[in-house]
């Protein structure tokens, strides 16, 4: 990857006109890089299967923009060196990529690599990059070349310390001031990169390690301490996010506490006019206590039901994998038996006299048809069984979500009953206050705006009704959200399973037909 090929004949290719990646270029590249014999026939007759290509080399191709690579989902090695590329983009779908060469381009910024979590070898040398950034997800990175770019800060290189598997680093040829002092430059990086074996093709031996440790010991300790604290904080954040995600998956997020009560109070614009009435504060405290108890009850039910659903889902997928594996084993047995006999039949055909060849070809065709029928039968049996299995799974999940929704709705009924009781008690206090104000008694105990409010009975009753409606609306909205999301989750899950199984079935049938057609074509070409 770091050899001299990229640096040779540079001037010649830049004389050509820049181009974009198109299907024709990709087809030629894939065919040139490994599709032979039967595979080449399939590629040419059925269309090149980009999704099966493992390696793709497009160096010295005058490419200006990375594009049209979304079908290369199985790609592990991509070579785009010595082109006109200015931006790292359109690589999100290449999730299996382990080797990427973008050297000798016009790239100014590291970006577009977030999904390449399997990346092991990355070459960005001879570009215009000035900052090491946006590489956090490359946790498998072992070899990195960023040589001959525009990096000026040695401290920026410390960004790479997070890659614990990095053992080869080349940053030679960057305008880093410390590079003029080779000892300081080497010792600094050797100290900070404990796992590094090679720096700019120099082996970091024990002597270099010892001198680096002695010189930068305090700095390293401080860095390690900061890294440890950052890791702890990240771990705690991850654990917290996982718990919150579980609550959300259980449809009971923010029900383990006073969140619903707080929402009720927040949405009640009329409450402030009633809180100053004697006894209302105590009623609100009691309302909050009992509502929180109901919410916690609902929260616990949600977690239990989520665990039940999770076990059912995992059990389904476990059985599905086993069923598919068993079916594949049966299909492999059919194929193995056929291929063994087909090989002998082809041999007999080639050795047979000319007057017998056509009859032997007919036998081969018949056996190909039988093989195709047997494979189809295996696939049909699996697909029919999966239809029944998915239907049973759908019934089980429907029963579980229905049971949970029914229990949740029962608890929400109690929440509304609690609110009704609270409303009636507040109404009694308000009516008593109306009577007191009407008699001209106790007015000094009320704020001016509240005293004015209680001079009009209709306004008071409207205020109480609006407060009550706001409370019930908040409770109803949370209930609707929970039930709706539970149903939507179930529908989406079943649809995804059905769509995935249908896609697998269609691909399997297409594979069987493609293989049979290929055998027939080979048979036709035999003399």
Name its key features.
61% helix, 5% strand, 10 strands, flat, two-stranded parallel ribbon, mainly alpha, Leucine-rich repeat, LRR (right-handed beta-alpha superhelix)
Domain tally: 2
Count the beta strands. 10
Radius of gyration: 36 Å
Strand order of the largest sheet: 2-4-5-6-7-8-9-10
How many angstroms does the end-to-end distance come to? 46 Å
Mean pLDDT: 85
Question: What is the strand content?
Answer: 5-15%
Helix content: 55-70%
Question: Structural class, judged by helices and strands?
Answer: mainly alpha
Shape by Cα distribution: flat
In short:
The chain is mainly alpha-helical.
Q: What would you note in describing this structure?
A:
There is one protein chain. This protein has 527 residues and is mostly helical. It has two domains: 5-234, Leucine-rich repeat, LRR (right-handed beta-alpha superhelix) (Alpha-Beta Horseshoe), CATH 3.80.10.10; 276-525. It has eleven helices and ten strands. The strands form two sheets. It has an eight-stranded mixed sheet. Strands 1-3 form a two-stranded parallel ribbon. Strand 8, helix 5 and strand 9 (198-199) form a beta-alpha-beta unit. Helix 7 packs across helix 11 and helix 8 runs antiparallel to helix 9.
């Amino acid at each position: 990857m770091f050899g001299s090929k990229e640096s040779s004949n540079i001037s010649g290719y830049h004389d050509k006109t820049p181009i974009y990646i198109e299907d024709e270029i990709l087809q030629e590249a894939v065919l040139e890089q490994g599709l032979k014999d039967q595979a080449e026939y399939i590629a040419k007759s059925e269309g090149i299967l980009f999704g099966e290509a493992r390696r793709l080399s497009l160096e010295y191709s005058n490419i200006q923009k990375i594009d049209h690579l979304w079908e290369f989902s199985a790609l592990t090695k991509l070579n785009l060196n010595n082109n006109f590329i200015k931006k790292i983009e359109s690589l999100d779908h290449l999730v299996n990529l382990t080797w990427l060469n973008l050297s000798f381009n016009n790239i100014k910024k590291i970006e577009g690599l977030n999904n390449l979590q399997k990346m092991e070898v990355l070459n960005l040398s001879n570009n215009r990059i000035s900052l090491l950034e946006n590489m956090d997800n490359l946790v498998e990175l072992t070899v990195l070349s960023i040589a001959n770019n525009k990096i000026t800060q040695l401290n920026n290189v410390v960004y790479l310390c997070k890659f614990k598997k990095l053992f080869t680093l080349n940053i030679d040829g960057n305008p880093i001031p410390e590079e003029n002092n080779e000892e300081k430059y080497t010792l600094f990086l050797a100290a900070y990169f404990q796992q590094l074996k090679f720096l700019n093709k120099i082996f970091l031996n024990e002597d270099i390690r010892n001198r680096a440790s002695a010189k930068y010991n305090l700095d390293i300790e401080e860095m390690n301490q900061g890294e440890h604290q950052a890791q702890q904080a990240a771990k705690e954040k991850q654990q917290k996010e996982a718990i919150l995600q579980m609550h959300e998956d259980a449809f009971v997020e923010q029900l383990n506490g006073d969140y619903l009560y707080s929402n009720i109070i927040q949405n009640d614009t009329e409450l402030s006019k009633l809180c100053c009435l004697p006894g209302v504060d105590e009623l609100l405290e009691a309302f909050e206590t009992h509502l929180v108890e109901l919410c916690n009850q609902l929260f616990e039910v949600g977690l239990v039901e989520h665990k039940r659903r999770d076990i059912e889902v995992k059990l389904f997928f476990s059985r599905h994998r086993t069923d598919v594996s068993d079916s594949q084993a049966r299909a492999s047995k059919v194929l193995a038996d056929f291929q063994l006999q087909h090989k002998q039949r082809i041999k007999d055909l080639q050795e047979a006299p000319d007057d017998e060849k056509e009859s032997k070809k007919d036998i081969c065709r018949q056996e190909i048809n039988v093989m195709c029928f047997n494979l189809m039968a295996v696939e049909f049996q699996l697909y029919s069984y999966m239809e029944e299995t998915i239907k049973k799974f759908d019934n089980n999940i429907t029963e579980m979500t229905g049971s949970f929704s029914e229990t949740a709705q029962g608890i929400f009924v109690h929440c509304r009953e609690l609110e009704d009781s609270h409303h009636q008690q507040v109404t009694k206090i308000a009516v008593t206050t109306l009577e007191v104000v009407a008699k001209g008694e106790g007015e000094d105990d009320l704020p001016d705006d509240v005293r004015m409010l209680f001079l009009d009975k209709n306004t008071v009753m409207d205020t109480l009704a609006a407060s009550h409606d706001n409370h019930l609306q908040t409770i109803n909205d949370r209930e609707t959200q929970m039930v709706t999301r539970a149903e939507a989750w179930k529908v989406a899950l079943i649809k995804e399973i059905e769509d995935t199984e249908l896609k697998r079935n269609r691909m399997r049938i297409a594979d069987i037909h493609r293989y049979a057609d290929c055998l027939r074509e080979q048979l036709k070409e035999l003399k």
